[in-house]
């Protein structure tokens, strides 16, 4: 399934909920956001149907996200449903890790291929400051539980924030020294509350790590669904990855679309463009109509984002396909 620029779209990130048990400062207000009613969230059968039609069009990899996906009851069962779809080669999960230890066995039993755990710092005080809730001990227990399954690929995701102590990134990178886990540093995306914070580039992080661990060797090859650039430090079991979506944007090779928990098929983080899949499903559209609409809208995927191009930052300044997204990441899907 190719878009108008010839990119092969084979990866869909599926948000199963807008709810979360943390309140990370760059993602959600401290008081939370108004929760979407349960009736407005896609059912598991609806998600399975969309993913099944997507698989017929060429989607082969699915990432389950939120909000925090593990707060949705029965998630391992959904994962098992998706794994049985012909053409789906991989189903993975992104989580904050708080509930991971309690769910990991059932997730793996249902076919989980990989898990990404969001950890911005190992320091309990800073973790509480960022998440406004705390719980780093539960997260690390979840990490260890995931690593107890040798066939499960485990990654740690960190969104570096300007002003954090440099030792934060050294400690996080050290997880890959002692464990078979990849640690990735992801540049802050200026979406929702993220616009209020300054991130740290991958090059800055690498320079910090190089001072402590020496020069790293560039890793060649593809190590996941996304665009991370990986390096290997001497003596490390795992790799260190960098995803610089703003300063080194990779739109020309973008292979993904997003399905929000409310059923909007979203083509690019920066723009509202997409299609209301829930409306199609609940209006009685048959699979062929849904298939045609998915193919049509994915073909129209925008060429690229313009986060770093100095474009105006207000939705009123744009129109048509360039209408800017106004929702927070928790409402879009991480």
UniProtKB/TrEMBL annotation:
Catalytic activity: GTP + AH2 + S-adenosyl-L-methionine = (8S)-3',8-cyclo-7,8-dihydroguanosine 5'-triphosphate + 5'-deoxyadenosine + L-methionine + A + H(+)
Amino acids binding [4Fe-4S] cluster 2: 251, 254, 268
NCBIfam families (alphabetical): moaA
Gene Ontology biological-process entries: Mo-molybdopterin cofactor biosynthetic process
Obligatory cofactor(s): [4Fe-4S] cluster
InterPro entries xrefs: Aldolase_TIM, Elp3/MiaA/NifB-like_rSAM, MoaA, MoaA-like, MoaA_NifB_PqqE_Fe-S-bd_CS, MoaA_twitch, MoCo_biosynth_MoaA/MoaC, rSAM
Pathway(s) where this gene product acts: Cofactor biosynthesis; molybdopterin biosynthesis
Uppermost EC category: lyase
The UniProt record lists the keyword Mitochondrion: no
Region of interest (Disordered), ranges: 309-334
Identification of the protein by name: GTP 3',8-cyclase
Organism of derivation: Mediterraneibacter catenae
Keywords recorded for this protein, A-Z: 4Fe-4S, GTP-binding, Iron, Iron-sulfur, Lyase, Metal-binding, Molybdenum cofactor biosynthesis, Nucleotide-binding, S-adenosyl-L-methionine
Cited function: Catalyzes the cyclization of GTP to (8S)-3',8-cyclo-7,8-dihydroguanosine 5'-triphosphate.
HAMAP family: MoaA_B
Enzyme Commission numbers on file: 4.1.99.22
Bound cofactor: record note: Binds 2 [4Fe-4S] clusters. Binds 1 [4Fe-4S] cluster coordinated with 3 cysteines and an exchangeable S-adenosyl-L-methionine and 1 [4Fe-4S] cluster coordinated with 3 cysteines and the GTP-derived substrate.
Binding site for GTP: 13, 94, 155, 256-258
UniProt record similarity statement: Belongs to the radical SAM superfamily. MoaA family.
Any Pfam family the entry gives: Radical_SAM
């Amino acid at each position: 399934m190719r878009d108008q620029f010839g990119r092969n779209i084979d990866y869909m990130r599926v948000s199963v909920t807008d709810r979360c048990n943390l309140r990370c400062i760059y993602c959600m207000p401290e008081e939370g956001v108004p929760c979407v009613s349960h009736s407005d969230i896609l059912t598991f059968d609806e998600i399975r149907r969309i993913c099944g039609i997507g698989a017929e069009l060429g989607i082969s990899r699915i990432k389950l996200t939120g909000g925090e996906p593990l707060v949705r009851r029965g998630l391992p069962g959904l994962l098992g449903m998706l794994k049985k779809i012909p053409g789906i080669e991989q189903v993975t999960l992104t989580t904050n890790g708080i509930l991971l230890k309690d769910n990991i066995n059932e997730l793996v039993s249902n076919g989980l291929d990989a898990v990404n755990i969001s950890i911005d710092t190992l320091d309990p005080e800073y973790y509480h400051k960022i998440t406004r809730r705390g719980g780093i001990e539960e997260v690390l227990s979840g990490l260890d539980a995931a690593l107890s399954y040798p066939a499960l690929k485990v990654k740690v995701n960190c969104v570096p924030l300007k002003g954090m102590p440099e030792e934060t990134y050294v400690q996080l990178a050290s997880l890959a020294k002692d464990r078979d886990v990849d640690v990735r540093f992801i540049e802050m995306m200026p979406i929702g509350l993220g616009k209020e914070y300054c991130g740290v580039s991958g090059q800055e992080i690498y320079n910090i790590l190089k001072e402590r661990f020496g020069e790293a060797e560039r890793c060649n090859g593809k190590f996941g669904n996304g665009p991370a650039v990986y390096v290997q430090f001497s003596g490390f079991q795992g790799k260190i990855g960098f995803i610089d979506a703003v300063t080194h944007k990779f739109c020309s090779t973008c292979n993904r679309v997003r399905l929000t928990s409310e059923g909007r098929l979203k083509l690019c983080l920066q723009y509202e463009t997409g299609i209301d899949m829930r409306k199609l499903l609940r209006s009685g559209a048959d699979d062929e109509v849904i298939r045609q609409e998915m193919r049509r809208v994915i073909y129209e995927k925008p060429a690229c984002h313009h986060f770093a191009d100095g474009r105006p930052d207000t939705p009123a300044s744009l129109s048509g396909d360039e209408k800017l997204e106004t929702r927070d990441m928790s409402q879009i899907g991480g």
